[in-house]
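Tokens help. One example:
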Amino acid sequence: MHRLATVSVLSTVVTAALLTSGLTVPALADAAPTSPVAFTVVDTDGNGSYGLYRDVTPGGTATAIVPESADHAVYEVSASQDGSRIVTVEDATSADGVTSQVVVRDVSGRIVRVVSSTFQSYAGPTDPNPAVDFTVDEAARLSPDGTQVVWTTVMVSGDSSTPVLKTAPVAAGAPTTIPGTTGLVLSSYLDATTLVATSADQGGVVTFPITGITAQSPSHPLGNAPADSADFVVSPDGSKVAFRVDRDPAGTQDASRIDLEVAPLTLVNGVATLGEPTVLTDALENSTPVWISATALDFIRSDGAGGFGDVWTVPADGSTPAVATRETDADEISIAVGQVDSVAPPAPTADVPFALAGSSATIAWTAPPATPDLSGYLVTRTFRGATTVLPFVPAPRTQTTDTGLYLGTDYTYEITAVDRSGNVSPAVTRTMTALGTRIVVPVPTSATSTTATFPVTFGAGDPAGTVFTVDVSTNGGPFTRWVDHAAGVTRSYPGAIGSTYAFRVQAFDAYGNSTAVATSQQTTVPYDQTKARYSRGYGTARYSDAWYHSVTILKTTGGYGVVTLPGHRFQLLVTRCSTCGVVEVVYGGRVLASVDTYARVRTPRQAVASITWTSNANRTLTIRTKSTKNRPNVYVDGFTMWR
């Protein structure tokens, strides 16, 4: 195990093992192999800040995926067999400690997912509080098909430590502990479902499936692997295993050496069998193996005193190294992961309407067809000449939300599909005229007030800095200014009984853009029920939730009230109740509406019997009760007439 604050160069390179399969993984449907891709962890400036580099042309210039920095280090990398995804273990240091993360990226370095993030609460070489447990993530491995990741978590308490293995799908899902793996440190995948681990003291090898695991003893070796093998990796084609073997031939326990051995590998139904291993020529001293092809290995030579020298490449048959040195006095390890897919996926289809809400917009699209290696989507937004890249959208999601939009402004979005090898499709472009605004006024029976004053809401959900003008029209007259360039709020409008109001609003954002004028529905302040003239036999009642706190009760069949109102749309306001009966609205000798006002639970201020004419005029209407068994009463609350 390593602790992040004291991680050495040796621990950096020991854990950088190639993830490959013992079985052949089919090429992707749209793959067009061109050249191997290599990932390199290297400290070029000697300050211990390891960076991650990508090189698809051996011997060419590497491109930084995660640059070196003083407060960040990539100390391990492994990859899927097709090179489409990589998993790294990274440290980020700050004043209060070190955060260790297991990060999955696509081939171009974009983060697909941070699978595990744990915090080490001290920055020194020793633990000042050994009673406090903490976790350190190390030895992360990506499955050959790039769909899942497994890593070792070491729980430390005082001077004791217990490594366990955890796994999680790359696409989604919470990490889980693999049962029966306490005391084991992950070494490698053999195929997409089979793992290999060693004991915590690097002294034994065990292989097991990811699912259906039972407790196993690390004393059962993989085939005839040496019991003291400290680390091993599988060749890209799954045909060989290279072992890093820690030996003490003299038995003195103070002069150990490290050898490299290669053995043929056969994997049948998850059961691994090894042939006789061969000790590689000129691969002694302290060294760490990494496959760069099916027939050759890289390893880093150490002088045995903590210093690292050259990176060597040796053929797997143990013959003399063909390349004696690659880079001197730099900590470098390269991982070759097969052929690169260079064919871009088809473009997505921009056929889903924008969904607008306040200062946010949801941009959606349809996934391209027949894209089995689709990684996700890049979405960019252009606004006033500036382009912003929105967060990467992993497949299978096909939408994202953009926030903080300004009103009355045009936004252009470009959407491209990205496959697991980092190939980018042609872009589809969508242009959206930014959000307008809205104004909300209550319908007559929904206001909480029992006076002529009612609430008007405008600007809800709009960006900070937006101001509004609000105009009002009374009884169909001209609009006049009510609110002048003020922030959006809910305000009370002092209406008059029986009057009708319409409002319009315009928004201005911090850039000086303005929206189109938005007009509200009309609202009318009701007349109370005393506006009508009633027949004999009526009564009155006081209710705090009625318009102006009172209602008129028509108690007998045929009882009526007559009211004359100016306007073109009439509504009767009633209270519904368990003893309430049927009411009719009569105009010009004709019954225009008949409404049963019964309800099991008393509900006040209900608008019923809505009647509309084509023009404004004074209209006299009769409201009368109709015979209803055991329900003779009608509670008249008020009247509205729109003008």
Summary: The first helix runs from residue 9 to 14. Helices lie at 9-14. The radius of gyration is 38 Å.
